[in-house]
Input
Amino acid sequence: MACDYIALAAQGVQKLTPYVPGKPVEELERELGITNIIKLASNENPLGPSPKALAALDKVKAELTRYPDGNGFKLKQALSNHLGVALDTITLGNGSNDVLEIIARAYLAPGDEAIYSQYAFAVYPISVQAVGATAVVTPAINYGHDLEAMAAAVTPKTKIIFIANPNNPTGTWFGKSEWETFMAKVPENVLVVLDEAYIEYVEDSDALNGLDYVSRFPNLIVSRTFSKAYGLAGLRVGYCISHPQVANILNRVRQPFNVDSFALAAATAVLDDTDYLHRSRKTNRDGMQQLVAGFKQLGLDYISSAGNFIVVNFDQDAAPFYQALLREGVIVRPVANYGMPKSLRISIGLPEENARFLQALKKVLGR
Ligand SMILES: *Cc1c(COP(=O)(O)O)cnc(C)c1O
Output
């Protein structure tokens, strides 16, 4: 082979490291020949899908030969009603990861800068580097975003700031006053992407809700997903709300049929499924308490989390604990790739799954 196809790739792409997903259950089954495995690794909803989603999927089957509605009209209509936003502010994505990538492709070119925090979601660096833009990473404070440092990092080259609230993988979050101070400092020609993938789990009624600020700040883009509290991770559907001009641009870059018929139908059906959402929240709240109590009992340090997951610290290399937990049939998430080699991230499961994880943890710690 005379050609180096790695070297042939666009420069930013050559330097990419692929996203590391949680280990699939089937893979561990094959490797260890064990069954009854539990996976608490990918911040998935442990409840299983909403019956409303399943019913909607059934109806779509007969339409499989047709392309989906490329404008996602029904879902946009439902979102518009549910969120109180205008139709022309909505951009749909194949998961909100797609939305994040569309934003990067639409607004970043080589030479442009995008700012995100240390311990930020792994999709930001991938989206920024893939288009050959320059990533500017600001240090975290107590694992969370340092909004002051992020605002101070803005240069004439800055096009986008990516912020997740609550943040994944750390679970950290910030409130209105910090946010308002930050937004006041960011110039209008710098887009702020506020990634609210976990917003539905935040129960404090006084918590920051990005949608309250979209009309005030035309440079604000709020992204959300059906993958977490709505329990549709396997279908891939998310969206963002922005100024209509931004949405106009994003909808030019977007693939015409980026959200498939099943995803559109199920998302439309679950949006007003308050019963499911309440169950998601309650399961998460109870599970979080269960894990925190378990960590305290085991004398383990953890990062307080507003998401559907929690990071636990081991004060030593966490990889052996991850491996030992796998042998107990429990898949959690290493976060060494996020620069946290002494920690593991645990997604909140059902009560019995949390209990099994804690039992396995106790065993692998030798306590
Ligand atoms: C899970 C997650 C998302 C959602 O991704 P989807 O593509 O919608 O499944 C977005 N942002 C963050 C920070 C996440 O953790």
